[in-house]
């Protein structure tokens, strides 16, 4: 099915080194051709979802021209393209309900849906890392070479104090961090 989509829609697919801010992207190159990139560190389930997400951008552009990147046109096409992949032969059965829920109103990033993101990350979790929601309040952790102290949870994210600059940052609950110290109870 993926091979068919690639051949049908005429774009170059590049597998690239991990980027911190995105899993993939779609763009028109200066020569007029189209390119889709997907990060090389994704597990096979994240990779497939990201690839179809980016193909949906390409199809949306071909059909409608310039529209909102994650607007109603893209959402409809993304849902249509993903539907054939919602099978237990492709995605593990326990991921399918999360994927189906996400696809009712897909966001710009799969990481925006915490339940789907956590279910997908089960297959690529870095050893020695903890999800921020798993560590106790007041714990010290390292994220991108900085040390933070985990604070209270807001609606969907955690307040975390950067110990170097004393600024509070909001972290998604599915961010993977290196636990340094847990407060004694």
Task: Note poorly predicted spans.
Answer: none
Shape: elongated
The percentage helix is 25-40%
Mean pLDDT: 90
- Quaternary structure classification: single chain
| Euclidean distance between termini CA atoms | 53 Å
Give me the secondary-structure topology.
Blueprint: H1 2-9, E1 12-16, E2 24-28, E3 34-39, H2 44-64, H3 72-82, H4 96-104, H5 114-121, E4 130-131, E5 140-143, E6 146-153, E7 157-162, E8 168-172, E9 176-181
Parallel strand pairs: 1-3
Antiparallel strand pairs: 2-3, 4-9, 5-6, 5-9, 6-7, 7-8
Please name the defining characteristics of this protein.
about 180 residues, alpha+beta, six-stranded antiparallel sheet, 5 helices
Detailed description of the structure:
The protein has helices spanning 2-9, 44-64, 72-82, 96-104, 114-121, and strands at 12-16, 24-28, 34-39, 130-131, 140-143, 146-153, 157-162, 168-172, 176-181. It is an alpha+beta fold. Strands 4-9-5-6-7-8 form a six-stranded antiparallel beta sheet, with no helix packed on it. β7 and β8 (168-172) form a beta hairpin. It is elongated, with a radius of gyration of 19 Å. The N and C termini lie far apart (53 Å).
């Amino acid at each position: 099915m993926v091979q068919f989509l690639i051949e049908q829609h005429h774009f170059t697919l590049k597998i690239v080194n991990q980027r911190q801010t995105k899993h993939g992207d779609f763009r028109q190159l200066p020569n007029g051709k189209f390119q889709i990139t997907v990060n090389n560190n994704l597990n096979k389930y994240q990779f497939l979802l990201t690839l179809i997400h980016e193909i949906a951008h390409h199809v949306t552009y071909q059909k409608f021209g310039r529209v909102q990147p994650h607007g109603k046109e893209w959402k409809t096409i993304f849902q249509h393209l993903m539907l054939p992949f919602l099978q237990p032969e492709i995605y593990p059965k326990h991921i399918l309900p999360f994927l189906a829920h996400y696809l009712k109103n897909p966001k710009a990033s799969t990481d925006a849906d915490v339940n789907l993101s956590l279910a997908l990350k089960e297959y690529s979790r870095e050893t020695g890392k903890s999800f921020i929601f798993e560590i106790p309040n007041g714990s010290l952790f390292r994220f991108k070479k900085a040390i933070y102290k985990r604070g209270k949870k807001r609606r969907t994210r955690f307040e975390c104090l950067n110990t170097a600059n004393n600024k509070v940052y909001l972290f998604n609950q599915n961010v993977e961090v290196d636990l340094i110290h847990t407060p004694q109870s």
